[in-house]
Amino acid sequence: MKKQVKNNVSWVGKVDWELRSFHGDELSTHNGSTYNSYLIEEEKTVLIDTVWLPFAEEFVENLAQEIELSKIDYIIINHGEVDHSGALPALMKHIPDTPIYCSANAVKSLKGQYHKDWNFNIVKTGDTLDIGNGKSLVFVEMRMLHWPDSMATYLTEDNILFSNDAFGQHFATEELYNDLVDQCDLYNESIKYYANILTPFSAVLRKKLNEIIALNLPIDIIATSHGVIWRDNPMQIVENYSKWADDYQENQITIVYDTMWKGTKRLAEKIAEGISLEDSDVVVKLYNIAKSDGNDVITEIFKSKTVIMGSPTVGNDIIHTMKGFIHYVKSMKFKNKNAAAFGCYGWSGEGVKVLNGLMKDAGFEVVSEGFENLWNPDLDAENKAIEYGRKLAAL
């Protein structure tokens, strides 16, 4: 169903209430998502992006009920990933010669995925497309936010920035705008989206935000490709991105561990207790990675100034859940965060040393040699773990 965004701009996307994972199973989406596509009906009719492949036929059928497909003059593909371009092959069966405007890298992406040589028109930052009634589309390349082919499209006069993946959230809702949804849910989904998708590109994002600001384009609405549309103070999400891109941290310490026979779990709890005793203002979060959602934990690490990781020693190494998780953490390219390690062992005790090396390799500043305990902790070991937590909180 078409929903008006502003004047002659409408939302023609799809709400996916059932989605629980994205990018395969790489990203959890507890609150579903939306695939936002937009229709502009001026002297020229323009479709901006489509929806994910499973909803392709439904999308084309619904679009055909709103407008005669042959009247679509231009198609804008801001990003070639299948959640945005998935309905394109089904649509192009009906209008095969319609010009598609996208970046040069998007042409490579679309040809590589769909093996079709459609009527591609390559655009770059600053290029414009006149759509009549005194309005134009202005294109802004957004390379590596989060693919090399990404771009945004700006509609003059209506002052709408179609930002694609930037500024979005995986958040299913029938409410179109940011001011109509629960603000806590919106913030939590926005920061999770940034932490898990855009953190590795923070340096690129800082430059791109400055470039967008330098274009001096008035922005009344930011129309994303996932989640709600920002109409109430739309620059609030830009301000948050500027803050999050600047090696973000809060007064938070996050402890992540796995355990075999509960010894390392007990140390984790006592370290958390020590942190709270030393600094009652610091937020302490504690996660058993084998029982927690990894993307939610990544979000908490993103917010943290210090990360403490624990594992028992297993086969002269650490438990595989922690090794896999640290590998994922490394891909996030976190900056300006301290780290420390802990764990129990029974024989050789290499776990803490392995953790230190992996955390250092992942870009953390390892601030302690670590805390290790032979066998299960007794009362004395628990007290030492509390003191370890106090020392880390005091750094």
Describe this structure in words.
This protein is 34% helix and 24% strand. It is an alpha/beta fold and 395 residues long. It has two domains: 3-244, 4-Layer Sandwich (Metallo-beta-lactamase, Chain A); 253-394, Flavodoxin domain (Rossmann fold). A hairpin with a 2-residue loop joins strand 1 and strand 2. Helix 5 (183-198) packs across helix 9 (294-303), helix 6 runs antiparallel to helix 7 and helix 8 (263-278) packs across helix 12 (379-394). It is elongated, with a radius of gyration of 24 Å. It starts with a strand and ends with a helix. The mean pLDDT is 96.
Strand order of the largest sheet: 1-2-7-8-9-10-11
* Coarse morphology: elongated
Number of helices: 12
Computed structural class: alpha/beta
Report the radius of gyration as a whole number of Å: 24 Å
| Helix content range | 25-40%
Q: Using the coordinates above, name the CATH class of the largest domain.
A: Alpha Beta
The CATH superfamily of the largest domain is identified as Ribonuclease Z/Hydroxyacylglutathione hydrolase-like
Q: How many domains in all?
A: 2
Distance between the termini: 55 Å
Q: Ranges with pLDDT <50 over ≥5 residues?
A: none
Summary keywords:
single chain, 395 residues, alpha/beta, Metallo-beta-lactamase, Chain A, Rossmann fold, 2 domains, 7-stranded mixed beta sheet, 6-stranded parallel beta sheet
